## 1
Amino acid sequence: MEHDYGILIVDDEPNIRSGLAKGLVKEAARIETAGDAEEALRKFAERAFQLVIADVRLPGDLDGLELVSRLLQEEPETIVIVITAQGTVEMAVEAMRRGAYDFISKPVDLALIRQQVQKALTHHRLQEENRQLRSRLIAADEICGIIGNCTAFRDVIRLVQQVASTDATVLIRGESGTGKELIARALHDLSDRSSGPFVAVNLGAFPESLLESELFGHEIGSFTGATRRKPGCFEQARRGTLFLDEITEMPAKSQVDLLRILETNRFVRVGGEESLTSDARIVSATNRNILKLVEEGRFREDLYYRLNIVPIEVPSLRQRREDIPLLVEHFLNHFCQHHRRPLKAFADDAMQKLVSAHWPGNVRQLRNLIERLVVTEQADVITSQMLPSELQSTIPFGAARIVPLAETAEAAEKQAIQAALSQCEFHREKTAKALDISLRTLHYKMSRYGLH
């Protein structure tokens, strides 16, 4: 048998049970019988059956109708075919209403019931294949997390597909919350290294004294507290991908070390002497103007050109507004299922505000908003009045005056930092974490924008 199907036959007449069992022996890997509903439920609890054939009239406290309900309550995917004597068609119709797949009248025509069983098992197989397909699609979406259909985003996806199969070093640039790590994971998942590890490290999250150990590892006794040998990110990512996020936060000495690794593919643990080989593909990312940092001498020019073999620019959510309804639908479905909430929808006026909003936090901000609304709003339809206050006064897209992009981005960044500081009660570490930037970057931006 191609599929390990099981059939349970339930009838109070021994001749019918044995006759059906012999006649259907080629249709299933195993066939069992039961004389009443209680025995059928016991056997059903012990072993899974894909198909149950049951008489409507059964002895005992439970009849065939109640058996149909109980079986489908236990396992909704089970296919139940009921058989009934002449004159009880109404009962068979009731069984269908309760979820039975089909009914066949007595006396039983073996050829007909075999045909119906084949049809039912084919139906079951197709259902199972569809469930598996949906699971693969959902899993693929969770792995890549890339959703978008606008021209700018399709260009990004096309470039990812072209570059993924190579070992070329990639530099991903884009604002915070645009999905740079998702792009990096897609590069890994679509590559020949997909069976290897994907190691992500946020370079802005470590003080300079610990960053070297985090990247390259350390030997026992190399510094106070180093009680055991620790492999660094370059070792952990062997035969895989190493994602260096916030690459512009890397201090000068670490920049020199990284450049040496990129040129020689070798490194040494902190406190060690053995030269180790690096076999990790390097993908880096930044939300800052790295060229400006190079011009100011704050980031090594030679390292920039070594990292920027293949540049990928991830558009902001403001640059892909036509994707917002698609993203909203995806996040709604995801969070309604995740939080076990009834499926919701957005009214036209609410969707218009979402499309017109500025979104300084980009897709991450939109995602968090949708999750909040799914959890807190009881209505099935979300209207514009239910949106947070910062979206209520949104100027429709295209109605505002045209301003330079740099001015727009800086104003949005300042506003986002102000809002985050206020929500985090001016706790700087919490604010930096909420904005997904390093504390050092937050201090720099607060000084730049005069925020105290």
## 2
Amino acid sequence: MRILGYGLLMILLGGCSSLYDKQVEWEYIEPATYPVLQAVGYAPIAEQQGSSDTLKMLQAIKASKLDAYRELAEQVYGQRLSGQESLSNLVLSNAQLKSSVDGVIRGAKVVKSYAVDDNTYATELELDMRKVHDIYLAVAKPKRVKKVRYY
């Protein structure tokens, strides 16, 4: 009886599997156009930490570059906004708004880095999405179904 039960169970489970084997062909997807994103970052020179004007200038160069990367990340990934309000006796007593950006930027290049005045440093970045797409293909290899053959 136990053998008959196992036999019926195997037949039922075998009925759930497909009778055909298949082969799936994939093809890669390429966008029609590739935009070029541009961002500018700024940093005040006098506010930087450093014992000399040269060190402050170097810190401003780094800070302006990071600010430009942040702006590129905003364009690619968007900004996360979080807000909170509280009421006390039906009167708004506290309102907060926080924003954050999180992402990875690959393939950006520095177009120009220069002092605007003696007070501010600016860095211009450019991100060619064709280059980003090529990097993405090299790492992730995205696919879509091209053809399915059943045997």
## 3
Amino acid sequence: MSDLQRQLDTYIKDIRPRYEDMLGQAVEIPSISMDPRHAPDVGRMAELAAQYLRAAGAETHIVETPGYPVVSGGWTVDPSYPTVTVYNHMDVQPAQEPEWKQAPFAFQNDNGIYRGRGATDDKGPALAALFGARYAMEQGVPINVRFLWELEEENGSPSFAAAIKNRAAIPRPDSVVISDTIWLSKNQPAMPYGLRGLLGARLVLRTGSKDAHSGVTGGAARNPLAELMDIVHACVDAKTGKVKIPGFYDDVVEPSKAEIKSFLQSGFQVSKFKQAYGFKTLRTHDPAEVMRRIWAAPTFEVHGLVGGYHGPGVKTVVPGHGELKVSMRLVPNQTPEKAFALLKKHVAKLNPEVKVEREGMLHPFSGVFEGPYVDAVKRAVKAGFGKEPAFIREGGSIGAVVTMQKTWKVPILFMGLSLPEHGYHAPNEYFDWGQASGGMKAFVHYFEELAAKR
């Protein structure tokens, strides 16, 4: 081991208590952006995030938007140096699942296992990147590092585009790196080069002013829940997942042979995928087909059905209204605007009384999986974790990525630190010191790689 490597290892060991204290403070703020009741908490999270940047020696701005703010900060050492922006988000998902074994916003540190909502998505990785940047700045690495910490990512990033128009607080970088994605497994780092888009919608049907007794009205009364389920059947094959909406697949670009080859070389294992997410069975168990479906194929999903009785036992009512919550994941070259128009047209033909309300939309993202920036990610991840990452697509969506791509037109890479078992959007979420410390090391090496390109 070289003296420089020992120096970095010593730094990471010494700052561990500080990292754990900062993560604990952040996790205990319930910054749930999609719930208006937590607006004060989101504001507190923005202030704490700005405080963290200032404490690291970075100049800092809280950029106000029509919604929640964006926290921007960093080091501009020399305009002639390359500038990289690191993106993370500091808002979190709700934590109402009954399976939680602890209070979700009461941070627990179990000997390097960091439990609590937001620990892995995305506060833990954000702070790991910050400590990596601080070390690079202290060592005089010739690079400018900027941070963008969003507070509306879990709500579809509705205000992000407005924020990055503020060129004084958020200057245009030469490249962007995102740390908000999941590996294939603990033994196989994975970095995506593409994201699926998203369209959310609510299908609402009201057939009466109130619930009615089925013994008195059943047979003559319309049942809005049954009618909405009929619409679901006409939109998607529940057994295969094939979407039945006319024109839905017209713009889909299938993954290339090179991409499928990259998927197959990734080390993805169906058994580990099932275990990580608690599945008993899947629609297919062919590895290539599973990967294609979760990364490169569009979907139609049903998330919830509202109306009628939801208590214990059976209450024999005919509901007066029903609401179906659905979404579609989209791939290049689909657009959420066209997908919504197709859905609305299809539903109107099936049942013109059903109102289709749009609930957010995100465009798919397509990046590169070859070239000098990709090579830099490979070397940095290997330096941090001992193994080169696989390059795959990501099945989820990050709205800010497409906005940055359109606005800045610069290379956008991914260097996520989370594992499948960490519980993204799930109960009992956690992060761990192994991923945090390896991430710090990987980010230091990534900044050095970018600096060497100038």
## 4
Amino acid sequence: MKLSVIILARTISDALFKMTSDCINTLRDSEKSLDIEVILVESNKQYHTSGFAYPNDVKVIIPEAAFNFHKFLNIGLHAATGEYIAFCNNDLIFYDHWFTEILKVADQHPKIKSFSPNGNFTTNFISDFQTGYKVRTHVFGWCFVAKRSVFNTIGDLDETFDFNYADNDYAMTLKKYNIRHAVVYHSKVKHLDPKEANIDKGDWYKIQQEKAAKSIKELPGYVAGANAFTDKKSLQDHLKFHAKWGSPKKLYRKNKIADLFIKFHLGLFNRWVMVV
């Protein structure tokens, strides 16, 4: 059994290089007996002349395209050869047997094909896992794992979502295709906050905000106003998500119906329920 781990990185400083190296090293150390393929999708176009160098067994891919969260994950997906694919930020610390714990759930419950590790180390849980599609409760965009067969069903990740709402879109897509997802509580992966990682968002996000500010013309009735959002980029991505999946009220109703279908083992009808 082979695990392909796709890590997105932007290696432009010693701090970022160290953070990504720590991510790779803890990944290797956490599962020494497993066959792990590490694919690094690098945003620094000058990486090869930058003086930074990751281990030779790490496959570094430098896309020609500008950074786009889902596009870069798709590039890694197309290069991956494992039966399981992990999609990861580079600001992660992996703990011992994190993937082995996911495999235990997968082996015992073969209908669950998508997984997130647990980032909450302090809470006591009454079960080994919990199924669901709620973002930041069950689905974590900073690290999720799926069987390769999932992408034979859903296709590539939607590159409309270049950063914000990427995890929301993935969760909705799983529900649409009746693919079960679970957070695995004994699978521990720490997601560093910006202070721990000693980094900031960099200039990419600022550029996207400027582009978004120019592109927003009219707001639909369900948006109270641009002031409800911290920045124009977040507002634009909010609009894109609801343009695809329906207004908040419509999406609420569709989710209620889809959840009932799943509860009564009729989730195959979600493909029609989730259409806008």
